[in-house]
Amino acid sequence: MTPLQTESMTYRSKLPQMLDRHEGQYVVIKGTTLEHFSDSYEQALDWAYENFGLDPFLVKKVASDQHFCIEY
């Protein structure tokens, strides 16, 4: 499984709990861990680059209408 697949699965599985406290924010996911939440995409991306450099991570808006189309 690729890092993006792992992080996408983590997003989907943890979305219900994230919606309760973080709807509308942006989450940084590394592997299977929710690392950070920010109010803007730019803030989340800056935080992720500062902490992970060029290692893979996912930044995604926490919203109930988010969809993924990733082949496994």
General description of the model:
This protein is an alpha+beta fold and 72 residues long. The chain has one domain (3-61). It has helices at residues 3-22, 41-52; strands at residues 26-30, 33-38, 58-61. It has a 3-stranded antiparallel sheet with strand order 2-1-3. The longest helix has 20 residues, at 3-22. The mean pLDDT is 92.
Give the topology.
Layout: H1 3-22, E1 26-30, E2 33-38, H2 41-52, E3 58-61
Antiparallel strand pairs: 1-2, 1-3
On the 0 to 100 scale, the average pLDDT is: 92
Number of strands: 3
Percent of residues in beta strands? 15-25%
Going by helix content, strand content and strand pairing, the class is alpha+beta
Helix content: 40-55%
Order of helices and strands: HEEHE
Strand order, biggest sheet? 2-1-3
Mind telling me the C-alpha Rg?
11 Å
Euclidean distance between termini CA atoms: 7 Å
- Summed up, the helix count is 2
Q: How would you characterize the largest beta sheet?
A: 3 strands, antiparallel
Principal-axis shape equals: globular
Number of domains: 1
Report low-confidence residues grouped into runs of 5 or more: none
